């Protein structure tokens, strides 16, 4: 199969029941969101001379906070975890999409009494507004799609709430997101919530972990990597976005080019199995939601690509799908998992 025959995943297709949220939600994310501008800044939040106000630019929108928010909603477990690790668990009035991924044990204990607004999809408009948040933290702009029955950013504003979207989840940055976008989110949220010291510590920990991977890999040859998603017998390649940067940061060479036409508007594209065979990757990375899905994917890959080096050498690398969400500490976990698999002698 030639590159020109690769079919881009439809951007507005209906969400399949068993498709992970990170993939399905972003397939419709580019829908018009009247309150969400385009663009994002990597500049840290600014405070005025008195230190009482914080202003940041997020997804092209300017957000100003005269005081620290006291009623916060995490729109994904990954965002809820980040808020708790910043030390503002007592300010969280709602958590959403709780069944998409499990919280780490220490965080789960602290989140046990936080009201659940939704389980496998973003909360309905009325449920989110009923929680009366003053800040809503989300991995993507999809969570605010009015056409899906969710509260729009405009509606949140009208009800006294501001929305912060992970830097890598802004619609116009989704295809070019980087692992280090997480550091921007931590810094911004630390300023907004007035916990800069906790934010600085999280940033330092993340930077140290990334530096350790970079130092360990050094100038080692980069194995070729195909990152895929399997839905039934339908195979998709993931070639851009935070996923692609995770592969690069982990010391892999993506066999799919982020600048290729099929990834111009969306970070994934449906492919035929022959596309993987022709690229002959040394390793295959795939996101999973649990052991059953991991085994099903491994069985498919072994059955479909028996002569590909990744299968012959059993270099099939499973990563929790939740670690691929924009703006999550799991991005660092994914880098480490993949790097250790690709460069076992370096660690």
Structure description:
The structure is a single chain. This protein has 347 residues and is an alpha/beta fold. It has two domains: 3-9 and 220-346, Rossmann fold; 34-213, Rossmann fold (3-Layer(aba) Sandwich), CATH 3.40.50.1980. Helices cover 33% and strands 17% of the residues. The chain is built from twelve helices and 14 strands. The chain has helices at 21-27, 77-85, 105-111, 125-130, 153-158, 181-192, 196-217, 241-249, 273-279, 291-304, 309-312, 330-342; strands at residues 7-8, 46-47, 54-58, 61-65, 72-74, 92-95, 135-138, 162-165, 224-231, 234-238, 253-254, 268-271, 283-288, 316-320. Helix 2 (77-85) packs across helix 3, helix 7 packs parallel to helix 12 and helix 8 packs across helix 12. It is globular. Keywords: Signal. Belongs to the bacterial solute-binding protein 8 family. Pfam families: Peripla_BP_2. Residues 71-346 form the Fe/B12 periplasmic-binding domain. InterPro entries: ABC_Transporter_SBP, ABC_transptr_periplasmic_BD.
